[in-house]
Design a protein that fits this description.
heterodimer, A: mainly beta, 4-stranded antiparallel sheet, B: mainly beta
């Protein structure tokens, strides 16, 4: 299985901050990397697919980059509705695997 | 707009089989997508269980493969999960979802299944 490791596991930030989350794959996955946002009691929501493509309807303050084994999710100016847990996931092969999540909390 | 809805018992006894159904609306299950199950224990991360293609070809998580069966009923636009010999470790929110092969783009709302006697 491909292991996905996110860092940090949690972070505290304020509205307006620029926030970056990283995800590392245990082997090269080209650009087969997706990012999801999950709020308490809700299903995950796709934000970014193919490492850098913005899903329809997702605000442009979200962006993704990277290829191979190292990826980042950036929120350019954190909004109140962005406090949530974020997961990376590889779609290079099965079994699909997720990072352990990064919780973005209010500072 | 594709929508997915899980249904099934919320409580299953240890050693029994957990059975859930996902009903797909707003699109045909026979279209070229993978139909997946993912679970999340309380306070923990997401675990991929497996998926089925419309041809019936399945892929399962190696850690669950011996206990999992995913099937599809095209006439009802549904797919199902069966997980046998459950223990308390199988207690989780179970999500059904659509995998477009590049991403998991549509999710059900999730259903909590508790394994307890």
């Amino acid at each position: 299985d491909i292991q996905m490791t996110q860092s940090p596991s949690s972070l505290s930030a304020s509205v307006g901050d620029r926030v970056t989350i990283t995800c590392r794959a245990s082997q090269s996955i080209s650009n087969y990397l997706n990012w999801y946002q999950q709020k308490p009691g809700k299903a995950p929501k796709l934000l970014i697919y193919g490492a850098s493509s913005l899903q329809s309807g997702v605000p442009p303050r979200f962006s993704g980059s990277g290829s191979g084994t190292d990826f980042t999710l950036t929120m350019s100016s954190l909004q109140p509705e962005d406090f949530a847990t974020y997961y990376c996931q590889q779609s290079y092969t099965t079994p699909r695997t997720f990072g352990q999540g990064t919780k973005v909390e209010v500072k | 707009q594709v929508q997915l809805q899980e249904s099934g018992p919320g409580l299953v006894k240890p050693s029994q089989t957990l059975s859930l159904t996902c009903t797909v609306s707003g699109g045909s299950i026979s279209s070229s997508f993978y139909w997946s199950w993912i679970r999340q224990p309380a306070g923990k991360g997401l675990e991929w269980i497996g998926r089925i293609y419309t041809s019936g070809i399945t892929k399962y998580s190696p850690s669950l493969k011996s206990r999992v069966t995913i099937s599809v009923d095209m006439s009802r636009n549904q797919f199902s999960l069966h997980l046998s010999s459950v223990t308390a470790a199988d207690t989780a929110v179970y999500y059904c979802a659509r995998d477009s092969s590049s991403s998991i783009d549509y999710w059900g709302q999730g259903t909590l299944v508790t394994v307890s006697s």
